[in-house]
Specification:
single chain; mainly alpha; elongated
């Protein structure tokens, strides 16, 4: 008995095996998708009140963030103004201190000249 197998028969067999494998794979994928969908549905039904509360509080949270941002902006502006004033005061203080030091130095020079004159006066023979 001779059995002849043609190329078409082999091709049909391979395609059939691949189709069955693909069908089994798709069934497993659909089963996994269904399981994930059930889990998501369970989570939503279980935490529906929490999710609703969170969603309803989002505008209030956004408003609080906006208020906070404005407060921080004003604070930063206040810090900038304060630092500029402090810088100007330090500069004025430095200039004032420098002038006072110059005046004190002038007094010291005058005093030293007076002392030199006094020393020279007493050194001269009479």
């Amino acid at each position: 008995m001779v059995i002849s197998i043609s190329f078409n028969n082999i091709l049909i067999f391979v395609i059939s095996i691949l189709s069955i494998t693909l069908l089994i794979y798709l069934i497993v994928v659909v089963k996994n998708i269904n399981s994930v969908t059930k889990d998501v549905k369970y989570i939503f039904t279980k935490d529906k009140n929490s999710i609703d509360n969170t969603i309803t509080s989002l505008p209030k949270i956004a408003s609080n963030i906006e208020t906070l941002t404005e407060d921080v902006k004003e604070g930063v502006h206040s810090i900038i103004v304060t630092s500029k004033d402090s810088e100007e005061n330090k500069a004025q203080s430095s200039v004032s201190t420098a002038k006072k030091v110059e005046v004190a130095l002038d007094y010291v020079l005058i005093f030293s000249e007076i002392v030199k004159v006094g020393i020279n006066y007493f050194k001269k023979p009479k």
